[in-house]
Amino acid sequence: MTQKNKIIIYVIAAIVIVSIIATATVFILKTYQNSSNSTQQNNKISADAIKLDAIKVSASDPAKAKILYEQALKEYQNLGDTHNVNDVTMQLKILEYQSKQK
User: Fold this and answer.
1) pLDDT tens by residue, 16-32
2) What pTM did the predictor assign?
3) CA–CA separation, 22 vs 43, rounded Å?
4) With b meaning 16 or more CB within 10 Å and e meaning fewer, what string describes 53-78?
5) Angstrom distance (rounded) from CA 97 to CA 102
6) Residue 1, pLDDT score
7) For residues 65 and 54, is the Cβ–Cβ distance under 8 A?
8) DSSP assignment of 50-62
9) What is the pLDDT averaged over residues 21-48?
10) 17, 36, 68, 74: which could form a disulfide with 54 (CB 3.0–4.6 Å)?
11) Which pLDDT score, from 0 to 100, does residue 77 have?
């Protein structure tokens, strides 16, 4: 084998190794991103369920509704969901206003 052929083989081997590393990195990042999105979706579903429970009991048990709204508020704040943070905050203010009226 000549010196020129050895250099070509080394260059091809280096290109193959770099390609394998780049492909593996892309797959690892996609897997991490998918698991992060899945966790965030599960937290949103959990917060929505807590909020729905609070809505159901708000007329019959305002104290329990307040606790549930506060739990949902923390979940939404952790998710960065400003729309639902505002909604739950307003629900808490409404409960507070209603309790002062009684």
Assistant:
1) 898 888 888 888 877 77
2) 0.62
3) 32
4) bbeeebeeebeebbebbebbbebbee
5) 9
6) 67
7) yes
8) HHHHHHHHTTT-H
9) 77
10) 68
11) 92
